[in-house]
Amino acid sequence: MVVALVVLVLGGLVTDRITRRVRLCRAVTSGRGPVCMLKWPERDGRWRPGRLAKDADGLLTWTPAPRGTEVARPAGLRRTGTREPAWWREAPAVNPSSRILEYDAAGEPLLIAVFVNDFDVMAPILGEV
Question: Measuring CA to CA, which residue among 124, 129, 126 is closest to residue 25?
Fold first, then answer.
């Protein structure tokens, strides 16, 4: 009985891992990109869920979820660091196991929270930035 339960749990974990990878690959190849959270502290200061992807011209765009118009990336975007969420600041709003990519956009900070499993998928999307 215990062996059957262990086999079922392991089978479920493997299936979840495989289907997650397939969904991520489809999202990236279709141009949608994986789900992430974006925060412009200088503008509204809240974490907003959405998808970060490249459009047909190769420009980085962010589409808020569940619906909304695409927002083009700000000019002069450059990466300043990668860190884990601070427990007292971002962890209540963002998954504590995610990674936060810090950018500087024309003098104002821009934060992008990405799940650890999606970090390697986001690397080609954000590679040229």
Answer: 124
pTM: 0.69
Q: CA–CA separation, 65 vs 75, rounded Å?
A: 23
Measured distance CA(92)–CA(89) in Å, rounded: 7
Tokens of 65: 């979820």
75: tokens are: 């000019």
Q: Which residues of the chain have pLDDT under 70?
A: 24-32, 42-43, 55-56, 58, 68-75, 123-129
Element (H, E) at 114: strand 108-114
Q: Which long-range contacts (CB under 8 A, 24 or more apart) does 98-107 make?
A: 98/37, 101/126, 103/77, 103/78, 103/79, 103/129, 104/76, 104/77, 104/78, 104/80, 105/40, 105/73, 105/74, 105/75, 105/76, 105/77, 106/74, 106/75, 106/76
